[in-house]
Amino acid sequence: MKKWLLPLLCALCLFQAYSASAADEDTYDQDTIVRDATRFFGKTTEGLGKIIEKAFREHGRPNAYIEGEEASGAIGVGLRYGDGVLKFKKGGNEKVYWTGPSIGFDLGGNASKVFVLVYHLPSASKIFQRFPGVDGSFYYVGGAGINYQQSGDIILAPIRLGVGLRAGASVGYMHYTRKKTWNPF
């Protein structure tokens, strides 16, 4: 083996270890998210733990999350309105609002607490855009679910625990804004 190869490999390993630890400092681990989501929802359920585990398995560690509330309803065409607080691992909070239309085989209404896992968000200002998504839900008095919204590299994974009477599947988008608006478009 060449004499220069071993020091180069050691330096590469140290760089990768440093990069991984720096990334860990900017992202939330699964235990922290489960604890924060349980505190936010006010209860722990086996379903909530499984939903968070699924999100971590599919997308890794989020660098932010949103705690909020929303209301929605649909008769084929639906509307959703919500608001919450975006929280980064490194600190800093930002108030966010969201609205969005949907269309599909969807009927009913529900009110939910929402805990949104946020992946690859470089700064708070980048959340203020439209995120397309597909939603499927079934609420009969209470229910929990997750869906994904993506724009570029940014992925949002809203986890909803809510009450209402609603069933269906739809496509649409969520428009995240700095100010509250009733216009879903």
User: Which sequence of SSEs, written as H and E, runs from N to C?
Assistant: HHHEEEEE
Q: Any idea what the shape is? A: globular
**Secondary-structure arrangement, i.e. CATH architecture:** Beta Barrel
Largest sheet: 5 strands, antiparallel
Q: What would the average pLDDT be, to the nearest integer?
A: 84
CATH topology: Lipocalin
CATH homology superfamily name: Rhodococcus equi virulence-associated protein
Helix content: 25-40%
CA distance, first residue to last residue: 63 Å
How many helices? 3
Q: What is the top-level CATH class?
A: Mainly Beta
The total beta strand count reads 5
Unreliable runs: 8-22
Supply the number of structural domains: 1
Amount of beta strand: over 45%
Radius of gyration: 19 Å
SS-based structural class? alpha+beta
How is this structure best described in words?
The chain is of the alpha+beta class. It has one domain (5-177): Rhodococcus equi virulence-associated protein (Lipocalin, Beta Barrel). 26% of the residues lie in helices and 52% in strands. It has three helices and five strands. It has helices spanning 5-26, 30-41, 46-59; strands spanning 64-88, 93-119, 130-146, 149-151, 154-177. Strands 1, 2, 3, 4 and 5 form a five-stranded antiparallel β-sheet that branches. Strand 4 and strand 5 form a beta hairpin. Helix 2 (30-41) runs antiparallel to helix 3 (46-59). The protein is globular and about 70 Å long. The N and C termini lie far apart (63 Å).
